[in-house]
UniProtKB/TrEMBL annotation:
InterPro entries: ARM-like, ARM-type_fold, ELMO_ARM, ELMO_dom, ELMO_domain-containing, PH-like_dom_sf, PH_domain. The keyword DNA repair does not apply. This is ELMO3 protein. GO terms for molecular function: SH3 domain binding. Involved in cytoskeletal rearrangements required for phagocytosis of apoptotic cells and cell motility. Acts in association with DOCK1 and CRK. Was initially proposed to be required in complex with DOCK1 to activate Rac Rho small GTPases. May enhance the guanine nucleotide exchange factor (GEF) activity of DOCK1. It comes from the Eukaryota. One of its GO terms (biological process) is cell motility. Residues 267-440 form the ELMO domain. Keywords: Apoptosis, Phagocytosis, SH3-binding.
Amino acid sequence: WSLPNAERFALQHADGRQTYITESNRGEIKNGSILWLTTSPDQEAEGLYAGIQSNNLDVKADSLKRLANLSQDVTFAQEFINRNGLKQIFSIVEEGNHTGEILAHTLKAFMELMEHDFVSWETLSAAFIKKIVSYVNMSVMDASVQQLSLSILENMVPSSRVLFELVRKEVTVDRLLTHLQVTNTQLQLKAMALLIALLLAATDAERWEMMAYLRERNIRQFIHKNIIHSSEPLGDEMAHYLYVLQSISLNLHERRMRTPMDPYSQEQRELLQSLRQAAFEPESEMSSSSASTERRRSLCAKEFRKLGFVNNSNPAQDLYRAPPGLLALDNMVYFSRHTPNAYSRFVLENSSREDKHECPFARSSIQLTLILCEILHVGEPCSETAQAFYPMFFGQDHFFEELFCICIQLVNKTWKEMRATQEDFDKVLQVVREQITRTLSLKPTSLELFKTRVNVLNYSEILKLRQTERLHQEETLAVPVLVLRERLKPELLELIRQQRLLRLCEGTLFRKISSRRRQDKLWYCRLSPNHKVLHYGDVEEGVSSPPIESLPEKIPVADMKALLVGKECPHTKEKSSGKQNKDVLELAFSIVYDVEEYCLNFIAPTRYEFCLWTDGLNMLLGKEMTSERTQTDLDVLLSMELKLRLLDLENISIPDTPPPVPKPPSNLNFCYDFSHAEQ
């Protein structure tokens, strides 16, 4: 347009994130995008650099507010940082003359600028960090400033060991617990985020020490009462942090789980003997003078056999296998000391049964400990996205041990219900695993409720559930039914296709996840009603279904080239293989579009959404639906349709070959002539 001083101007997207158009991203402009002419990023950076140094507080506040908004754009951020703009932000904070709105905008701008990774967190000055820490430690301070300060510290912690030690020293756990007790849910969330970041960055010894202190400060009871059972609904972020806290707590058992028993350790041998003494002390009480060593040894072996150890002469051998290692011994000792009546009843009841029907306490305890470790993922790294915590975990001290006490009694109960013998040991434990997992899936809020529900789910109930599930899965395999099944398939596949496209038209809320930290930014994507354009754009928290007009970005379906899933996606390749997270891989997919082969990257919120979107996108690309959900849905629909069609044939056996057609009759005189009747 031949504008004078053209370098002072730039084009910018009018909607969405309002990013500047540069040589590197000009190819991403879509037909129909609205752009406006605005001041160039370097001019804006120049103006705001001067504005934030102004002595006029109104000008300064407005400049910082605009800076916080514009810093989201990578081009502007680079220009501002190149002018040493961060130094000005540091000086505003370090001088400490401002509070409230000006300080909040300053910290927000700093966060956005650091988000682009142009500057290392390790370059921050000690004075700046001390100021940020002081805002967190102040009793009376603007909540928005404290939230931003906590976020800044949360980002500093994983970036270097020095910063981790500094933050851990300056921000006490007690201070974070104070922030957790406020009614402001955002401040509560940021405090929890910093606490989790500190725990994840700590060494094993430091983590152990921090968790011991948190236990001492009753964080579990506080979370159970004020966060899980608060009037406010639990958000995704907080659910994730509670999952991580639960995972870290359970992983404290990993060391014992992976340590086999040492037969030369006096302490471990004493623990083993305490099990025998707690069960059989009155029976075996005799003075050493009256009983020979040989006699005592054979008596101990007999008692260890009654306790259910396989190697009764050297029971330590049963605990050589790790996992579950010493954790199984800890659980048995905890059970014998904290529920002595139940322990004595278990051992004595089984030692008086016939040999082939006795339930071996020790062998069952070792296997049950292993099962609980697998179900609760003890020793596994935390997932980046999971939110599956158990509310009852925060409702109970010594959760793992208390859960074991309930489940070992369940083993005995199920053993009796199944009238099991030693040969049925694996079958019984398989049923117990099913009882535990089915009950845990109901998310009981307390261990008492878990105990009630798991005991109601007895062996006969498990058999009924298995039978029902088998009936749902089984199909009649007669040839005519298989032929009917094949005929119904195309019609039902079309129904699934329609459902997938309708789901894409409704759209889904996706979460952005960066390699550095869990993001709380959301975006929405949906298909246009005519199935020709994909609309997407950033949305605010709490928006469930934004109208299609509010989504600024578009991809015509005709421009889509391919669908990538899992490891093929560019956003999963960016992350180092060491940190690669299995469940993110399972939920990742990307669309390759346009001549330049750009990619739109997704991480589905659930496996179900992943299946719906990959199926829908494959259809739009003219390919087959390949997800496991397609097969499941098809099986369910086929099963229902077949049952409806075969209702009239209930209890009638269907032959594999059709019956032979009889020969035609010698005459057809038996036919009634309707023409005479009509006349």
